[in-house]
Every structure is written in structure tokens, then in C-alpha cells.
């Protein structure tokens, strides 16, 4: 991966910056912390459900996929800003960690948290089918 702020290193996604335009399940910053998603049966099923959720989102492309990681880019509707949305599938803990961060700007007006809440809701409804 060419971007140093992307990917999983030692079981951790990159830290959120100090600016308020990032959320993560692995941050110590309480204002940016979110809960990880539980696995849906197993690794493969969980990945498949996340990919299905991403596929149904507008202006979203999956850029990288490995055995336990997915990186997608979401473009904003009007200004075409790019946000990085990453998922780390932790088989030991049976959870999906995620990080959603704006590439540019300072504040995101809560967009990353709102997006990840939406993804979490959609994931939960699909995994229960």
C-alpha cells in the first residue's frame, strides 16, 4: 500500500489524526471511538456482508482487499472529496475493526461517524438474514 496512513500494522489500523474528521474502533480518543462489529458466522461470511454493504453505497469503490482487510474510498457528492474507509477482520477477537477518515480538511461535520453508523446498521440487518 502506497499510503502510510492506510493498512493494518501489528493488528492495528492507523491512528486517527488530531483533527475531528476521523472515527475508529481502535482509537483511544473518546470523541472518535466507535464499537467494532461482531463477526457474522466466520471471516469469509463477514467479509462478504461488508462487501455487499459497500457495493450498495453510492460513490464507493473497493480499492484493496486482502485476507483480513478491505480499503474502500467514498467520494463526497458535490466536492468529490475522498474519504478512506478501512475494515480489519480480527479473527482472534471475532470482530471487524474499522476506521473512516477524511483525506483533506479539518472538520467533517460528523460525516464519518454518520457513515459508519449507517454501515453498522446495514451490516447488522444483513448478517441477521
UniProtKB/TrEMBL annotation:
It comes from the Bacteria. InterPro entries: DUF1499. Residues 19-28 have a biased composition (Polar residues). Residues 19-41 are annotated as: Disordered. Residues 29-41 have a biased composition (Basic and acidic residues). This is DUF1499 domain-containing protein.
Amino acid at each position: 500500500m502506497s499510503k502510510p496512513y492506510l493498512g493494518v500494522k501489528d493488528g492495528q489500523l492507523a491512528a486517527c489524526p488530531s483533527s475531528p474528521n476521523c472515527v475508529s474502533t481502535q482509537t483511544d480518543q473518546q470523541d472518535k471511538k466507535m464499537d467494532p462489529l461482531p463477526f457474522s458466522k466466520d471471516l469469509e461470511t463477514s467479509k462478504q456482508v461488508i462487501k455487499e454493504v459497500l457495493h450498495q453505497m453510492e460513490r464507493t469503490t473497493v480499492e484493496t482487499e486482502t485476507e483480513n482487510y478491505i480499503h474502500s474510498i467514498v467520494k463526497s457528492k458535490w466536492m468529490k472529496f475522498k474519504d478512506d474507509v478501512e475494515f480489519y477482520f480480527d479473527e482472534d477477537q471475532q470482530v471487524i475493526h474499522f476506521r473512516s477518515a477524511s483525506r483533506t480538511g479539518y472538520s467533517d461535520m460528523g460525516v464519518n461517524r454518520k457513515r459508519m453508523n449507517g454501515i453498522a446498521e446495514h451490516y447488522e440487518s444483513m448478517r441477521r438474514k
